[in-house]
Amino acid sequence: AGWKQHRQAVLECLDDLLQELTADTPHTHTGAGGGGSVCERFKVAKEEQQILSVLQDTHSGPRRLALLLDDNFYYHSMRYQVFQLARRRSAGFCQLYLRCPLEVCLHRNRVRGQPVSDDVITEMANRMEPPNSEKNPWEKNSVTVDTTHTVTHTHIQELLQVISSAVENPLSPVQDDSEQREADRQRCACSVLHQVDQVCRRLVSQAMLTAR
């Protein structure tokens, strides 16, 4: 539950930032549900990197901002939340999946300064759901890099291409058609009731004729 709240708080901070870049009076989250400290750290990082001032500097020409979310995102559902956020704010979206065999991951983890347990790495590998554009069309703008050995210049070019594609093709917000869907549902329900009523009337008529 703690990690879910943390992820949600990060998404809220990102939403605030994207809204701040496009709206005159952005709505800011209060950090309810344990996200206050996350939002505070996010605010400090934003000010230290001078994101808004750099983007608002008209002397250097138009600027574009790339937000890199460096996380495991092992479930499709986790990544889909980010996709929904990008779509809601008309931003581009792409994914970089770093593929690596479990044995290599375990070795690299053991030789680093602060390794985690092998069980954690193994469990993460078992849960990992790689991008699948056939099953999830929203993952079509993804690139997979095999990091078993070294990252090559070709890998970097592929990554730059997918980022460029995301920048040049921002997502379009889904129109809220909830009212129309509710109206259609009611019409469908009325139609079904009407059909049931007609059937009942016929059955009653037939029963009365039989009784005579």
Automatic annotation (TrEMBL):
Signal peptide (from-to): none
UniProt keyword annotation of Kinase present: yes
Domain of life: Eukaryota
UniProt GO MF annotations: ATP binding; kinase activity; tRNA binding
InterPro entries, alphabetized: KTI12/PSTK, P-loop_NTPase, Ser-tRNA(Sec)_kinase
Keyword terms of this UniProt record: ATP-binding, Kinase, Nucleotide-binding, Transferase
Statement: the UniProt record of this protein carries the keyword Nuclease: no
Name this protein carries in UniProt: L-seryl-tRNA(Sec) kinase
